[in-house]
Amino acid sequence: MQRLKSLTQHTGFAVAVVVLALLIVWYMAALWMNGQQLIMTLERTQQPWTYLEIVRNAYGIARPPLPVPHQIAVELYNSIVNQPITSRRSLLYHTIITLNSTLLGFAMGSILGILIAVGIVHNRTLNASLMPWVIASQTVPILAIAPIIVVVLGSINITGILPKAMISMYLSFFPVTIGMVKGLRSADKLHMELMMTYNASAQQMFWKLRWFSAQPYLFASLKIAISAALVGAIVAELPTGAQGGLGARLLSGSYYGQTIQIWAALIMSALLGWFLITLVGLAERWILKRRGAVL
Amino acid sequence: MNALHPDVMNRPTTSGRSMVEVNNLSLIFEANDAPVHALSEINLTIHKGDFVSFIGPSGCGKTTLLRVIADLEQATSGEIKVGGTSPNDARLNRMYGYVFQAPALFPWRTIRSNCALPMEISAQSKTHQHAQIDKYLQMVGLQDFHNKFPWQLSGGMQQRASIARALCLEPELLLMDEPFGALDEITRDHLNIELLKIWEATGKTLVFVTHSIPEAVLLSTHIVVMSPRPGRIVKVIESPLPRHKTLALRDTDAFHALASEIRQALAEDHQLD
Question: Are A196 and B106 a contacting pair at CB < 8 A?
Answer without folding.
Answer: no
